[in-house]
Design brief:
- This is Helix-turn-helix domain-containing protein.
- Pfam families: HTH_20.
- This protein is mostly helical.
- 72% of the residues lie in helices and 12% in strands.
- Helix 1 runs antiparallel to helix 4.
Length: 117
């Protein structure tokens, strides 16, 4: 599977508000499917399981069995890859521009202060 196909799955998974709500719950701690159903009472168990399957296929959720229970863990690596590819470079440029602006403003302030002294 290509990297673009993997990213498409991640974007598709995160496009749904219910799946984002599941991810929000799982970022706090791993939860069983039953615990997720308790956290999201507006969804029935079958719907939660369907959303978990989509999240698993996108690599965002990793299920771990412990006895009879299945704990769902959030794997944020696909989100980190998106951040690194699209957000990180823009954030770095914005931070650099803010540092330039700060430096220019401080230079102007020193110039004004020394002119009045």
């Amino acid at each position: 599977m290509s990297n673009d196909e993997e990213l498409d799955r991640v974007f598709k998974a995160l496009a749904n508000a219910n799946r984002r709500a599941i991810c929000d719950q799982l970022k706090l701690r791993p939860l069983t499917t039953g615990q997720l159903c308790t956290c999201l009472p507006e969804l029935d168990r079958t719907t939660v399981m369907m959303h978990l399957r989509v999240l698993e296929q996108a690599g965002l959720v990793v299920p771990v069995r412990k006895g009879r229970e299945r704990f769902n863990h959030l794997d944020a690596m696909p989100i980190a890859a998106i951040h690194e590819r699209w957000i990180g470079p823009h954030a770095a440029r914005a931070a650099s521009r803010l540092l330039d602006l700060k430096s220019k403003l401080e230079t102007e302030e020193q110039s004004v202060m020394s002119g009045k002294a």
